[in-house]
Design brief:
The chain is mainly beta and 262 residues long. The relative contact order is 0.20.
């Protein structure tokens, strides 16, 4: 579900989508100017986040990275409304014993051909959210830039990703791997404080800041093979993230401009 091919496809699609839209950013002759006043603007965005887990999340996973894409609309009163999706991956799994019952005494997996199977454990997950925010003009080239405060609500998912690195090992393939991956999901809240910069020349537009996320998740799998039990306890997961990203602003046209079509 969250394999490496899906991850790179997601990145490619996001960058491709961003690039296609950017062709429109050069048609600015009849657009309103952000340097003169507070204006409404549509913001297509790509972002990266480095996250540190806390609470139950830290018992299972180490630090992770996330890349995402979204859309934010900033109203003329500097209120923002946005939607964002993020794919998360990480290399550290702190939870012990997940596949120990399948390993040899030396810590190896043995394939059907009698050879060692290369594997590694990692983290995969995704987050979707809707946010409401406010831009407080400060330290910027115009009143559309400044301190950005946001709060959001959405959905968070995570699982242990078992990568066999192109080898075959039936007990960790297909439906069987679901008995070990601890797929969990649930509702989430987030808070963000940072800075948004919307350049007066429309060429440089970015944001950066710190985000705190809380999620109440539960195991979606019916049975954990390694513990021979069902995990029914509600989890409380937390993530502290340092995030930054780039905007493609799409400003509305001036009311006195005219378009002609042939």
């Amino acid at each position: 579900m969250f394999g490496s091919n899906t991850y790179f496809s997601y990145i490619f699609f996001s960058i491709f989508f961003f690039a296609i839209l950017s062709f429109n950013s050069f048609d600015v002759k009849a657009q309103v100017s952000p340097k003169d006043s507070v204006v409404s603007v549509s913001l297509v965005q790509l972002g990266y986040t480095y996250q540190i887990p806390f609470a139950d999340m830290s018992d299972r996973f180490g630090n992770n990275s996330a890349i995402g894409a979204g859309f934010t609309y900033k109203f003329r009163n500097n209120i923002t409304l946005g939607i964002f999706g993020r794919f998360r991956l990480g290399g550290a799994v702190n939870e012990e014993g997940v596949i120990d019952e399948l390993l040899t005494e030396d810590g190896w997996l043995i394939g059907r051909d009698g050879l060692y199977v290369d594997y590694r454990l990692g983290q995969r997950g995704w987050t979707t959210s809707i946010s409401l925010g406010k831009v407080i003009p400060a330290f910027g080239p115009n009143d559309n830039s400044g301190i950005w405060l946001k709060a959001g609500a959405g959905f968070l998912s995570h699982k242990i990703y078992i990568d066999l690195e192109d080898d075959e090992y039936p007990p960790l393939m297909g439906e069987y791997v679901k008995g070990y991956d601890r797929l969990s999901a649930g509702p989430a809240l987030s808070q963000f404080i940072g800075y948004i910069f919307l350049g007066s020349d429309r060429l440089v537009n970015f944001y950066a800041g710190v985000e705190l996320k809380q999620a109440w998740t539960y195991n979606l799998r019916k049975w954990n093979f390694d513990t021979n039990s069902q995990e029914t306890d509600r989890r409380f997961d937390m993530l502290l993230g340092i995030k930054a990203g780039w905007f493609l602003p799409i400003y509305p046209r001036r009311a006195d401009s005219f378009d002609f079509y042939f």
